[in-house]
Design brief:
The protein is mostly beta strands. It has one domain (3-98). It is built from 1 helix and 9 strands. It has one helix at residues 3-13; strands at 19-27, 33-40, 47-49, 53-56, 60-62, 65-67, 73-77, 81-84, 89-98. It is globular. The protein binds zinc ion. Zinc ion (ZN) binds next to loops. Residues 27, 29-30, 32, 68, 70, 72 line the site of zinc ion (ZN). It comes from Desulfobaculum xiamenense. Keywords: DNA-directed RNA polymerase, Transcription. This is DNA-directed RNA polymerase subunit RPC12/RpoP.
Length: 99
Amino acid sequence: MIPAEAHAARLFANHPHHRTAMLTIRCARCKTKLWKYNKLGKGEVLRCHKARIERMLDAIAENGKILCPCGETIGFDKGTFYRMVRKAFVYSGEKVAKL
Ligand SMILES: [Zn+2]
């Protein structure tokens, strides 16, 4: 973990409503499991930060995009994160810990 991330995590930890969840990101079209993501806090998944991707499953990184094997574009590679295409994916998950 880089120092800036560690600092951000500590800031999160000081807020009682922030928690983490392990999400399984799936293709909305074919339901293929794409990756597991350690999400911080509440709210929608608009971005997936690469540093918090727990495990890559069947997603394919190609030409600046992250794709499902069925061809659906799931997100756009922005360097440190993927900007997600809202309608292209679904997710399920569980809360893993209160920070
Ligand atoms: Zn798919």
